[in-house]
Backbone:
């Protein structure tokens, strides 16, 4: 679930996006209005939101409960859980973003080309995309 939240955080600049699993099936979508991105599962049910303010993004579940936040500085985004404990980070260089756990272990990556992003796990296997 933590990895999914990290991936969802990446869509904040998009006005609307659809997420696809490794087989190409629709698994989720997002809609951005102003500084708020709302997320929906494949059936269209609301699953949560992200609210951005400056370099900080706060995340909330479907009931409106705070679940954590991320802060961005330069090309690094750090992720924290609801109690404020560090969960991991991502670093971006060019079109590639690399994701790391709280212990610093590499967890996966994403590559953006045009309006699409492809996601890979730590072994390099394709895990899905956002368009």
Residues:
């Amino acid at each position: 679930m933590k990895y999914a939240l990290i991936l969802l955080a990446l869509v904040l600049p998009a006005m609307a996006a659809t997420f696809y699993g490794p087989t190409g099936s629709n698994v989720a979508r997002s809609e951005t209005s102003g500084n708020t991105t709302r997320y929906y599962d494949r059936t269209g049910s609301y699953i949560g939101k992200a609210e951005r303010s400056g370099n900080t993004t706060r995340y909330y579940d479907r009931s409106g409960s705070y679940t954590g936040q991320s802060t961005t500085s330069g090309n690094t985004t750090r992720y924290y859980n609801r109690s404020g404990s560090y969960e991991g980070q991502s670093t971006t260089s060019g079109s590639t973003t690399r994701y790391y756990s709280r212990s610093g272990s590499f967890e996966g990556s994403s590559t953006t080309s045009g309006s699409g992003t492809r996601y890979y796990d730590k072994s390099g296997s394709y895990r899905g995309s956002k368009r």
